[in-house]
Write a structure and sequence with these properties.
With about 400 residues, this protein is of the alpha/beta class. About 40% of the residues lie in helices and about 20% in strands. The protein contains 15 helices and 17 strands. The protein has helices at about 15-30, 75-85, 100-110, 125-135, 150-160, 170-175, 205-220, 235-240, 255-265, 280-290, 300-305, 320-330, 335-345, 350-365, 380-390; strands at about 1-5, 35-40, 50-55, 60, 65-70, 90-95, 110, 115, 145, 165, 190-195, 225-230, 245-250, 265-270, 290-295, 310-315, 375. The protein has a seven-stranded parallel sheet, sandwiched between helices. Helix 10 links the parallel strand 14 (about 265-270) and strand 15 (about 290-295). Helix 2 (about 75-85) packs across helix 3. It starts with a strand and ends in a 6-residue tail after the last helix.
Length: about 400
């Protein structure tokens, strides 16, 4: 097949959706398909050969985070050219209703379209405001995928329609066979606990962990906390400095270092407070062999099977987190059954399984399609309106 994949988020600062798109594209290419990915990126940003950059982005607050998106008439013209030149059998658009490259691609395309929905949120005034515009566009999407029950709930609640659940993918064996790093290996006297996330994004939960460190060290004085991720987090750094070498900030880590981190530490902690639709990092940590302790937000409860393959604590509660960490660090033998069950559970998220499920959706969509993807003639009118609007507010 000739598959066009659209990613709304910038490859200049990649995150979970970008990694999902990258890995799916490479799996499809490995299976013999032709894949082109359209994604925001600066011309100077190194991207794989199959990625077509759509230009610079603007940082926009979104769902408790910051999304780097591009939109507008100039970008719209690039999207139309990409659709026309690609001669795709199928277009796979991620986050199709995010005002971004993805929405532009949905406007531009006429033919078989699959949409994947990643976002989880309780309520959104923005989605409510644009729903009269985007709900009719649901008819353009022949196959809908949600990466989790939470993402599906958000779709149904805000936009209607439904979706089949196909989870995010992980290369399980890359984590299961990753080499241990002596700097991060825990011992009986000095067990290690890892955190990984954007340090300056409050919903990732570093402030919760920072408040729990003192009570944990009071009970387990030898514990070491390894904090990985980009961002300043000046307040948390100052708060944790008094604990000396019991807390180490690792900065950003590469994919290889992340795998070694999860293979080396005793515990991985995920203190996120919300806004997570899946929990891919939990699957990665369990694949590497770390006992996973996570906040009891719905997405994490689903991945940890309500505590059957990891430990849960009350979200936003440092005292609950501290009690849970002290328990797992002082009764380490009790964690062995959890790790064994986790090693089996993560196999359902391996890319070999996930790609087969995505291809099943493709097959279903193509079985009812009568043409390849081409430019929707109505898109010229839509982009004309954008161009007129840009004379007052240049978006791109």
């Amino acid at each position: 097949m000739r598959v066009g994949i659209v990613c709304p988020y910038s490859f200049d600062a990649p995150g979970g959706v970008q990694f999902h798109v990258r890995d799916l594209a490479e799996e499809l290419i490995r299976l013999g398909h032709h894949v082109s990915v359209l994604a925001p990126a600066e011309d100077s940003t190194p991207v794989p050969d199959y990625v077509v950059p759509s230009g610079k982005t603007v940082a926009i607050p979104y769902n408790g985070s910051v999304a780097r998106l591009n939109f507008g008439p100039v970008v719209g013209a690039r999207v139309r050219r990409w659709v026309e030149d690609g001669d795709f059998d199928l277009l796979h658009i991620h986050e199709p209703f995010l005002p971004s490259l993805s929405m532009l691609a949905l406007w531009a395309a006429d033919g078989p379209v699959v949409g994947t929905f990643h976002t989880s949120m309780e309520r959104s005034r923005g989605l409510q405001a644009i729903s009269p515009v985007v709900v009719p566009m649901l008819e353009k999407i022949s196959g809908r995928i949600a990466v989790s029950a939470e993402a599906r709930r958000t779709l149904v609640q805000h936009l209607g329609g439904d979706a089949v659940i196909v989870p995010n993918g992980v290369y399980v064996d890359r984590f299961a066979t990753a080499p241990k790093d002596p700097r991060w290996i825990g011992t009986e006297e000095r067990p290690t606990v890892a955190f990984l996330g954007r340090l300056d994004e409050p919903r990732k939960g570093l402030p919760i962990l920072a408040d729990a460190v003192g009570p944990v060290l009071a009970e387990v004085p030898g514990a070491r906390f390894l904090v990985a991720g980009r961002g300043e987090a000046s307040a948390e750094r100052a708060q944790l400095a008094r604990f000396g070498d019991s807390v180490t900030f690792l900065g950003g880590v590469s994919d290889e270092e992340k795998a070694s981190l999860f293979a080396s530490v005793d515990v991985y902690v995920a203190p996120q407070t919300g806004g997570e639709s899946f929990g891919i990092v939990l699957v990665e940590a369990m694949s590497g062999g770390a006992l996973t302790v996570a906040a009891d937000i719905p997405a994490f409860q689903a991945v940890l099977e309500d505590g059957a393959v990891g430990r849960l604590f009350h979200r936003g509660d440092p005292t609950s987190l501290a009690r849970t960490l002290v328990d797992v660090l002082t009764h380490r033998g009790d964690g062995l059954p959890l790790r064994e069950r986790a090693a089996t559970a993560v196999r359902r998220y391996d890319w070999s399984t996930v790609t087969s499920q995505v291809l099943a959706v493709y097959d279903m969509v193509l079985s009812t399609a009568h043409a390849r993807v081409r430019e929707d003639p109505r898109s010229r009118t839509m982009f004309g309106r954008l161009r007129a609007a840009a004379t007052e507010r240049p978006w791109a």
